[in-house]
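Structure, all two chains, one model.
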Amino acid sequence: MAPPPNRRTGYSRRAQYSTFFSYSAGVAGALLGLVLLIVSFVQPSLFTGLRAAAADVAAPAGRATATTRAAGKDIFSTVAGYFKAGSEHARLERELAEAKVRLVQAQATEVENRRLKLLLGIAAQDPGPVAVTRLTSSTAASTRRFATLAAGQDKGVANGMPVRSPMGLVGRVLEVGATSARVLLITDTESLVPVRRAKDGVPAFAQGVGDGTIRIKLISLGLNPLKTGDVFVTSGSGGLYRPGMAMAVVTQVTHDGAIARVLANPSDTDYVIVEPPFAPPPPPATEPVPDTK
Amino acid sequence: MKFLPFLSGDAPRPRINRVPSPAVARGTPWLTIMLGSLLPGLLLIASGPVLPPFGFLTFVAWRQLRPGLLPIWAGLPLGMFDDLYSGQPFGSAVLLFSAAAIGLDVIETHLPWRNFLTEWLVAIGFIVLYIAAGVGLANLDGAPAPLRVVVPQIVISVLLYPLVGRFVALADRLRLTPFVEVR
């Protein structure tokens, strides 16, 4: 549509004032935005309640789309399955034969583990999950990586709880609302997770890059021992994340670490598990030194 | 437009003695922009910034199609709504929506003629600035992300903008459909 032919307000004082005030309001809106930004940098927790309430309101829509998302994914994978059925079948048979052998070995290891644990007198430390739920929405248009959980205070979700999928770590709870919670995904630039290489325990930190990959920063500098295909798991140091959760696989080695791909891609995850925060066992109490007079 | 016959105007539909509903005529832009703000979050659980900021695209499209329909201060409430769901630091969309509204108004008064290409080019400029400024503001809040992570998002947004414009034009026709009977 063409712009209004005559934008001048003429001699009408009323028209002049209303135009002036609407432009003033526009500029005031921009300035208010600047003020809000400064406030959110200085006091980020101020808008937590507002955001949580908004997420609660939008949660039903998120739940509905989460279901259709899963259904849509199924349709695509079914169609794709027809095209690669033969080769996939052969590969699966081969893997199954290997897996059967591994399973027997794993059972033997498990039995032995149980026996050894009994010898040591350690009870199995595996607290049940707090909630099993869906990720309903995410910030797909921003470089910050947040997602919304379909469970909040009503299911006992609290700040700092790690969220994982069957494939590995997804993130941790950041803000909790009544029926929803905001999750900081591990691919966010603010997320820092202590990890170690699965096979030999080389310690490192995993920090998000912002585009869905993770940067592995080695703690001990010097010769970079990483190779493409190395798998990193959480190390559990510092608490919060339980040790041994699968995290990422190295795709590209850099001079001081590596770039890794996340194993638990949140877009492929149907259900996620909220776990209680992991607390490392406290150090043994030191014996008070007896006074020697 | 077989599925919406009354839009093409050739369906036998009473048009005499009918007016558009004022609430629908005024509320549609606000509603579509708010839905646009919600849309990227609901479409997929993304591990990177891949979807265009639909709220901003719809906002620009409405301002280009009907320059005087949304007041110049509309960026304040609409930006606030966008900030609640976008994941950006609170206030960034308020600032950027308002600035874009003023900028579009200035360009519109200085551009003597308009067609599809000029509108698209103007919108491309605003989209690139919006996304780049969004990264800058998010970087001030969190750890810095390089600008290259949003290049795919910018390309997708620029290519999708004409489609958003078509959708807004459709919404505009629906908005002005006379269906309320005059008594």
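Strands of chain B lie at 18-19, 180-181.
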